[in-house]
Specification:
The structure is a homodimer. By secondary structure, chain A is mainly α. Chain A folds into three domains: 375 residues, Clc chloride channel, CATH 1.10.3080.10; 75 residues, CBS domain Like; 109 residues, CBS-domain (Roll), CATH 3.10.580. Chain A is built from 23 helices and ten strands. Chain A has a three-stranded mixed beta sheet. In chain A, a hairpin with an 8-residue loop joins strand 5 and strand 6.
């Protein structure tokens, strides 16, 4: 007797077991097989074409907006895999979302269209973001209107408001408020536990994933089978419920989606757990959020669903598939909220659908820790403005509770990926250090008119992206800092071979004649010139090149005795990539070093000054 | 025959003119008299106690968050007058809002509670703002619940959503979209015209107001009489309309507020213009926004109301009364929108209430130019999420159109008030200048250990708030910039008299012994030490004081050759008050000058370099 039929016995089943057993085994094989094929396709795309497309993408976009231009984050290959991998991943029935990948996809497209533009986040972008959103909303709306009559298949079904629960009653009492505070606090603990477990799982997975593409696929396949078993197996634990009377919709559900899946139940009955598992995640959330359905779910059903989704959500994130976190967290939170609401029963007069919404808010607050955005997202999803104060309250409580345990899930991932994210505030120990303390050498500087061989050597042996240019006699009275020259600009200049035999100023006219404005622009596709593209012969090596025309004459500088905390704020607020540290006293070389993002990272500083470790 | 009875003849009046004439003259006198008394009270409060409380207060708060701590903006007297002046002003029937004054009131209270804290806007405040809002929303809600049963008078009537129009139909067609685009564009023109006229009126009024408090009161009285005449006189122009059948509410309206004011009409009729004029502005907006009331207003009524409110709104702002702009602009915009909707008639299928909402959005976009905030405010006021795309579209169009003509109304006022507001971006001509170009002298520096007499002299003859401290031999090998000392800290130090007879370092220990941490903190009430509070005798004058303990050793610096545009970005992004300009070449004094906010103002720079004027 296999597991499936054991499960079948547990369920209050009235069909003959023999035929059912066979029928359901076939159904399960078809279900799990389809999932497996789709999962393998998604994993193969990710593993072989664009490993950067795995996961949510929000940590990467967040890092990009912080000023970290990591390779291949926004490359066209990532875009391709993100789109198709996400489609396969969602279709494969994984407990994952498409919202994060959507954000990443949008960022990739924007990067592709806006070749070479810098996109560090600053408040001036808010208005443009708003503009884009308005255009999208109106366009989407227009398509929706056009498609309403069924011209475009499923597109256009369902409006812009996904889970409309605006009909919920709007009054609540003091016991309700206490219940909501309690819900938020527990939700915060669950949320931070989620982050903790996701982090542990990601560390374990990274060991497996590092072994190569086949291992990535194998891991994905395992999780796919686990998910299929849960989705198909667990509903057998649920009892069949007679359909309620006086419904507007069909019961059991006909066709694709609906609140009342028949599953193994006899006619006129439905399986409430199957209604949650064997639906799209969007429909499952809609069912959980729906109001006036207080008795539709057994407490045991909600408990099983919550436990399964919480667990599956944690083990799914990290497989080689584009996978968002919003949907798993909302699903787990909504079932948690509805469960709490059902447990409280009549003590609390609030609708169970509202409890589900608040549960989702508490989980979102506990994992993501974004208050304002989550609040707006929930408002837009549910169109439930009168409940906004409660949602805000729950978010604040859960965020505050969770902040006591660990960091937000995206911050955790940014750290785990080793992205040098700069926080808005300086760390406390930075106040005890000065800029000169963390400068790490050796510093390579160029003269205003430099020998080609020296430049070639520097570009070859270092990976520096910026080099200070120092003017020396006869071009100035004493050595002085002329500015900063970028590796990419040096490469373009060397490629153009505007060399002179003697150490003389050529001036900008020559450079303007040879190069167009776009020659020095940043290549959007990440396909800029490389050192290997240069073609410099022995003769060229002995010649000179005037660096003044490509030097940034106004680099931001700090004195070596500047508080490191203040230097960090300067670096972050201005979105710098290089910060020149200059000496305080005269009579020394005009530049001491260059601070980059990495020099402000805790690992670097605490490595140099281990005594601050215990303060942290 | 007086004006009132002439107007009475114009109206389709059926009562005997004689008795009506007398009755209405008495009513008008009572109405105008009450308004006049309240207006005079508001103006007297403003003129004699806190002139800074006049107007909206949003430009001042905006400037404060930009880093401008102008005197008395957030003083307790301003708070007092803002609250009571606003109550009198709104009750006096002026066409003005209470939203701006509310914002200012909140800022005053926060400043009072958070004595000495710095409140420059930075993104780290967003989360705290959200927290505050959540607490307010939940508290307000609780009071609302408690008061619903009528325990607190009018408080608690009406929910948090002021103008609920969520029932409006949600579909629109292409002709509708074209109508909306047209509405937005014209609304943008009206909005920018509003700004232009408000600016002109403010300039005129400032001439009157400068003559003294009695003139301020006289001006307010004039506008009050004008407003009373319009509100009471113009409804006589409207025809009486028979009450529609099958209404839920009384017609004509009984009591305080309602859609159907009887005014001079016979029983069973109402005066639509009186319903708009003789209501609170909130109710008038609610009536205009209400859906399913397409035939409630004559086109002529809407036109008269729009023209009157547009005109009264412009002439009211600038009188010595706390007066917000939101309500007048929304009122004018809503009547404009409804007017356009009525003119389009059956060409456009949209509800006239929705037209009113979009008209209000277009006016707000055209005057304030804030897109995201206005959008959120309108959403919260109306709870009409499905119409969000249309509102966004209208806002964008009107803002874009209006930006072609002039600045936003608040920006205009900031400029008119002479507040040195720093824009987020640098002006184009700044790229052609370097930091050293705009340094204006003479520079006063102190030695690390300075003679008391020198400090006293500098504090007395200059108004500088920061002084560079330069270490000289024997305290350093060569003159070098030690840091920056603030006027307020110098005053505390001098008041404490930690002087020495000789030029020696006393070190920080002595200062820490004498002073507590709060002695140097910024006084929240603006009542810090003044130069006049010092009590230094002849003997003290010849002594020395060690400035090192109170010197900021890490001031932000730029080299004199730094691009002025980059220096401006640095200054603004870091929220600086002083930026030290240091020399590029050695062998010169270690500091060239200090840049303050005023040095970045266009007036200052274009005064020094008139050749850039035409580029601007």
């Amino acid at each position: 007797m296999n597991t499936t039929s054991q499960l079948a016995l547990v369920g209050a089943n009235v069909c003959p077991i023999e035929s059912l057993d066979y029928e359901h085994r076939e159904a399960f094989l078809a279900y799990a097989g389809c999932n497996l094929i789709l999962a393998t396709a998604a994993a193969a795309l990710c593993a072989y074409i664009a490993p950067a497309a795995a996961g949510s993408g929000i940590p990467e976009v967040k890092a990009y907006l912080n000023g970290i231009d990591a390779p291949s984050i926004l490359a066209p290959s990532t875009l391709f895999v993100k789109i198709f991998g996400s489609i396969c991943g969602v279709s494969a029935g994984f407990v994952l979302g498409k919202e994060g990948p959507m954000v990443h996809t949008g960022a990739c497209i924007a990067n592709f269209l806006g070749q070479g533009g810098s996109r560090r986040w600053r408040s001036a972008l808010l208005w443009r973001t708003f503009f884009t959103t308005a255009v999208v909303a109106v366009t989407l709306r227009a398509f929706g209107e056009y498609c309403r009559s069924g011209k475009c298949g499923l597109f256009g079904e369902g409006g812009l408001i996904m889970f409309d629960i605006s009909s919920t009653a709007t009054s609540y009492s003091t016991p309700d408020l206490i219940a909501v505070v309690f819900l938020g606090a527990i939700g915060g603990i669950f949320g931070s536990l989620y982050n903790f477990l996701v982090d542990k799982v990601l560390h374990t997975y990274s060991i497996i994933n590092e072994k190569g593409a086949p291992f990535k696929i194998l891991l994905t396949v395992t999780i796919s089978l686990l998910t299929s078993c849960c989705s198909y197996g667990l509903p057998w634990l649920a009892k069949c419920t007679p359909c309620p009377l006086g419904l507007h919709e069909h019961c059991p559900t006909l066709g694709r989606s609906g609140n009342f899946k028949k599953f193994q139940c006899p006619q006129g009955h439905y399986n409430d757990l199957a209604s949650l598992f064997l639906n799209t995640s969007g429909d499952a959330i809609r069912i959980l959020f729906s109001s006036g359905t207080d008795n539709e779910f057994y407490i045991s059903t909600l408990f099983v669903f919550f436990a399964a989704i919480y667990f599956l959500g944690i083990v799914t994130y990290g497989i080689a598939v584009p996978s968002g976190l919003f949907i798993p967290v909302i699903l787990a939170g909504a079932s948690y909220g509805r469960l709490v609401g059902s447990l409280l029963g009549t003590i609390c007069g609030l609708d169970k659908g509202l409890f589900a919404l608040l549960g989702a808010a508490s989980f979102l607050g506990g994992t993501m820790r974004m208050t304002v955005s989550v609040c707006v997202i929930l408002l837009e999803l549910t169109n439930d403005l009168p409940m906004l104060p409660l949602v805000m309250l729950v978010l604040l409580i859960s965020k505050t509770v969770a902040d006591g345990f660990n960091r937000g899930v995206y911050d955790q991932m940014v750290i785990m990926k080793g992205l040098p994210y700069m926080e808005a505030h300086a760390e406390p120990y930075m106040r005890n250090l000065v800029a000169g303390d963390v400068v790490s050498g050796p510093l390579i500087t160029f003269s205003g008119v430099e020998k080609v061989a020296n430049i070639m050597h520097a570009l070859n042996v270092t990976g520096h992206n910026g080099f200070p240019v120092v003017d020396e006699p006869p071009f100035s009275d004493a050595p002085e800092l002329c500015g900063l020259v970028l590796r990419s600009h040096l490469l373009v200049l060397l490629k153009g071979k505007t060399f002179t035999k003697d150490r003389v100023l050529t001036g900008p006219a020559e450079v303007y004649r040879r190069f167009g404005a776009f020659d020095f622009a940043k290549a959007g596709s990440g396909k800029g010139l490389k050192f290997e593209d240069l073609d410099i012969d022995e003769e060229d090596m002995e010649m000179y090149v005037d660096l003044h025309p490509v030097t940034n004459r106004s680099p931001y500088t700090v004195v070596e005795t500047m508080s490191l905390a203040k230097a960090a704020v300067l670096f972050r607020e201005l979105g710098l990539r290089h910060l020149c540290v200059v000496p305080k006293t005269p009579g020394r070389p005009p530049i001491i070093g260059i601070l980059t993002r990495h020099d402000f990272m805790p690992e670097h500083i605490l490595g140099l000054f281990p005594q601050f470790n215990h303060q942290n």
